[in-house]
Amino acid sequence: ISRRSAGGAAMALSGVQVVELAGLAPAPLCAMILADFGARVVRVDRTSRAASAGALHAAVQGRGKRSLALDLKQPPGAAALRRLCRRADVLIEPFRHGVMERLGLGPEVLLQENPRLIYARLTGFGQTGKYARSAGHDINYLALSGVLSKLGRKDENPYAPVNLLADFAGGGVICAMGIITALYERTKSGKGQVIDASMVEGVAYLSSFLWKSQNLGLWSRPRGENLLDSGAPFYETYKTSDGKFMAVGAIEPKFYEQLIKGLGLDSVELPSQMSFSDWPEMKEKFASIFAQKTQAEWCSIFDGTDACVTPVLPFDDVASHQHNKQRGSFIKNDEEEISPRPAPVLSRTPAVPSLKRDPFIGEHTEEILLEYGFTKQEIAKLYSDKVIEFGDPKASL
């Protein structure tokens, strides 16, 4: 069943069958991206008997997915997953190196049974190297990539900006790109392959500009004193009189001139824009001016100019902001929850995200197994052996 885009064309990934082994943060985003663009995603959740306390976090990025509750630690559970993978196009697994091999579900086994399978392994440190078997989180991957050393204000410790960079950008998004690249290559070779997606390498790759721009002098000063890392008065956030904030990004001289004008200053009376030694004093000056008006008043001054000044919107105000509203950049599901619509926008086959609530764990267990060729009798046996669970307590065979 392929959902159709507005123009009637099937979505870009319609027909692609994805099996996602439930994990935390990055893998669920990766699979959600594929689902948003039309793939049929089965999320394999742990049964409540096998689940750890952390397993529930996986459920928040379940848009457009169906859930199968399966205990992979029991041999019949691992065998059931092997059967699913014989028909699947993509497997996404988020475990530390060696876990899948111990379950008899490593790439050698699954690719032998289905040579077209794209086996995506999404981990913090990758499949090889000293830390391959070590635990870690976003802040650790960010640290090892070098990126964390660049983040933070002057005279403060480096800080991690929530867990967006390594988990979601370097992990989930880069892995999705790898899967789509491998699917494209398969159209030519007919063969699947293994994707080793390391969040350390993913976020390092994202930071390529930082590496390649080192000789431009952009990063020659200590952390927090450079053009783009909160050193410059014209690339900074400022508090308004109503306790809100404005973001300023007026880098180019012509944009800077508009910023100065909007602030009611005269550039003739100010030090030159790139006079580093005057930056701290200029920041104080800008801060005292921004503190004199409300966010709305500053918006009315700067909207429609090229001063590169925008309001810092809290989540509550983002979807209703005029620009985002005009583009329909945020969507509401049938539970009235707001979230960003899938990006980027494709003209002919745009993503059509599901507006249904996220699935309960095990909600589609029977439906999925029937679809993947299991008989009612086999399903009944798996259920009585406690290898599978049904999310709906009323479900009965």
UniProtKB/TrEMBL annotation:
One of its GO terms (cellular component) is mitochondrion. Its EC number is 5.1.99.4. Pathway: Lipid metabolism; bile acid biosynthesis. InterPro entries: CoA-transferase_III, CoA-Trfase_fam_III, CoA-Trfase_III_dom3_sf, CoA-Trfase_III_dom_1_sf. SUPFAM superfamilies: CoA-transferase family III (CaiB/BaiF) (SSF89796). Keywords: Isomerase. GO terms for biological process: bile acid metabolic process. It comes from the Eukaryota. One of its GO terms (molecular function) is alpha-methylacyl-CoA racemase activity. It catalyses: a (2S)-2-methylacyl-CoA = a (2R)-2-methylacyl-CoA; (2R,6)-dimethylheptanoyl-CoA = (2S,6)-dimethylheptanoyl-CoA; (25R)-3alpha,7alpha,12alpha-trihydroxy-5beta-cholestan-26-oyl-CoA = (25S)-3alpha,7alpha,12alpha-trihydroxy-5beta-cholestan-26-oyl-CoA. Pfam families: CoA_transf_3. PANTHER family: ALPHA-METHYLACYL-COA RACEMASE (PTHR48228:SF5), SUCCINYL-COA--D-CITRAMALATE COA-TRANSFERASE (PTHR48228). Catalyzes the interconversion of (R)- and (S)-stereoisomers of alpha-methyl-branched-chain fatty acyl-CoA esters. Acts only on coenzyme A thioesters, not on free fatty acids, and accepts as substrates a wide range of alpha-methylacyl-CoAs, including pristanoyl-CoA, trihydroxycoprostanoyl-CoA (an intermediate in bile acid synthesis), and arylpropionic acids like the anti-inflammatory drug ibuprofen (2-(4-isobutylphenyl)propionic acid) but neither 3-methyl-branched nor linear-chain acyl-CoAs. Belongs to the CoA-transferase III family. This is Alpha-methylacyl-CoA racemase. It comes from Corythaixoides concolor (Grey go-away-bird).
